[in-house]
Amino acid sequence: MTAGELFTNYGMVMIEFLFELYVFLFMLASKLNRKRRFWLRTVGSTAAVLAASIGVAAFYTAFGETTWGRVLVYIVLFGMVFAQGLFMFGENKQTVLFCSAAAYAVQNLVYNVYLLQYFLGKLIGIYDFGSGALGVFLFRLMYYAVFGALATAAWFIGLKRMSRKLPIERLDYGIFIVAVFILVVSVVLCSVEDIYFTRAGIDINQPRVEADALFALRTASIVMNAVCCIAILLIMYKTLEQRGLQRDVEQLRHAIRQSEQQYRISKDTIDMINIKCHDIKYKLDAAIKDGASPGSVADLRKSIAIYDSNIETGNKLLNVLFTEKSLYCEQHGITLSCMIDGARLSFMDDGDLYCLFGNIADNALEAVTKLTERERRVIDIVVRAKDDMVIVSAENFYIGNAELSDGLPVTTKTDKSNHGFGMASMRMIVRKYGGEMIIDTDGDIFKLTILFPAANPR
């Protein structure tokens, strides 16, 4: 076989395969970090892979054009694309391997869907392009049009969502091994189909039993291959989803642990402030006896009173939390109104309780701090029992639009991947105790309501 024949028969096929694989790889990797000089790396490595693919085609011809030779060709091409991904993207091997495997699965799925519609179209006579240059041109035009339509559909059906969930830090290797195993089975099926059915020379226009049987077998093979690819993609998507949920839970647990640590720090701080205030009071009394001006002493007492005012809620932890928040409010011109029956919340763990009410207070403070009118810088928090429920309500003025997604406000911070966990942690805690959290707005008033069952809250 001459070099020209080799390129025409196999080189172009491999280049088309790589082109399709690149399309889906770049779709999935659209959110990944890129290395410096990304486009230079991309162009150079792509040229190297395409050149190497011609060598692979020559090897395949020398190997004997067998099924296992075809399997080896696909594996080598996949390995080159994986290595190229490591060269282009600044991600770990797991992420690049995941993207490469998913891209191959989608390419194989799209190709099999194309084959299925082509054979069915050939059967009913809509793909009779004739021979000659015009026939070849019309066939290639149809091929790329169908590929473009299927690739677009794949992006909107699943690849767009998968790309948003990447990169991955850790992977469930058990699930991933299953996906790779199915992928290998798919490669083998595809290779068997390409080799044996092509050799059989099926002409579906001939009314022969043999041709009909071969056509039915090939159609079944195509469908099975497509089903394997769909299974692969579903497993991979569930893997990404599971990793995302695990990451969110880890971050929420970290937030709760941080709240427990913050409570201990705040308690020590409030206790120290109270001790110092009492010491100063005794010293002031002594100063009065020594003849200090009553007016100056009164001013000092008023200043100290700010730091000597404890909020009593019936719960020691909430006393510390809201005393600390009240000091902040006093310094920033914010009115904090607390009517809290803390004893009603005794069923909650300290870490959960501090995280829940700490987030309630911090979210409200963040909202009212943006307001300029003193009369609107007001926060109202109430905890009360009614019938068989414990009701927690918090209201505050706010500015802007409170956009909700899945019942929770969408974070307004630029880095959305590392923010927005406060409300999520609150809802997780509320549901842990059998409760429900409701968020609503009334004009420029933000309303948060939490309902706990009073009996057996767990």
Question: What can you see in these coordinates?
Answer:
- The chain is an alpha+beta fold.
- It has 2 domains: 3-250, no CATH class; 311-453, Heat Shock Protein 90, CATH 3.30.565.
- The protein is 68% helix and 10% strand.
- It has 11 helices and 7 strands.
- It has helices spanning 3-28, 38-63, 67-88, 93-124, 132-164, 173-200, 209-289, 294-307, 316-331, 350-369, 421-432; strands at 335-340, 378-386, 389-397, 404-405, 408-409, 436-442, 445-453.
- The protein has a 5-stranded mixed beta sheet. A two-stranded antiparallel ribbon has the order 4-5.
- It is elongated and about 115 Å long.
- The model is unreliable at 202-209 and 414-420 (pLDDT under 50).
Principal-axes geometry comes out as elongated
Largest sheet properties: 5 strands, mixed
The residue fraction in helices comes out at 55-70%
Along the chain, the helix and strand elements come as: HHHHHHHHHEHEEEEHEE
Mean pLDDT: 76
Radius of gyration: 34 Å
User: How are the strands ordered across the major sheet?
Assistant: 1-2-3-7-6
Cα(first) to Cα(last) distance is 76 Å
Derived from helix and strand composition plus strand pairing, the structural class reads: alpha+beta
User: Any low-confidence stretches, pLDDT <50, length ≥5?
Assistant: 202-209, 414-420
Count all strands and give the number. Answer: 7
